[in-house]
Amino acid sequence: MNRKYAFSPTLLPVLFAGLACVPTGIQAQDNSATTPKQDHILIERGKALLGQYQCGSCHAIPDVPIARGPVAQPLDAWSQRSYIAGRVPNRPDTLARWIIAPQSLVPGTAMPSMGVSPEDARAMAAFLFSLE
């Protein structure tokens, strides 16, 4: 039996969907990656924000001139620490969450909520993780 196949425009979406699933060996570009220049800008912004939010009234923070607070632990070599507040694994995303709402991660902590936005917290975490 010899069949002839006619072109049907209604099958085009199915054809294109199928082509999208064919492995090509070409990796999709990860648009979430940042460049070193973007990282540097984020880190510098985080450093400035730590000053603006007056984190230095409690913490001593290297490279933040006004941050010499003696109340809470100093934040030097932050990237070398295993835990936040001795309980929460120290990762950039977790640190940002800690900066936004510390009570949600460790109820009863002395760290106050400072009204930091998620974007500002991400920048502040980037700066702290630059401290080796």
UniProtKB/TrEMBL annotation:
Residues 41-132 form the Cytochrome c domain. InterPro entries: Cyt_c-like_dom, Cyt_c-like_dom_sf. The keyword Signal applies. Residues 1-28 form the signal peptide. One of its GO terms (molecular function) is metal ion binding. The keyword Metal-binding applies. Gene3D superfamilies: Cytochrome c-like domain. Keywords: Heme, Iron, Metal-binding, Signal. This is C-type cytochrome. It comes from Comamonas antarctica.
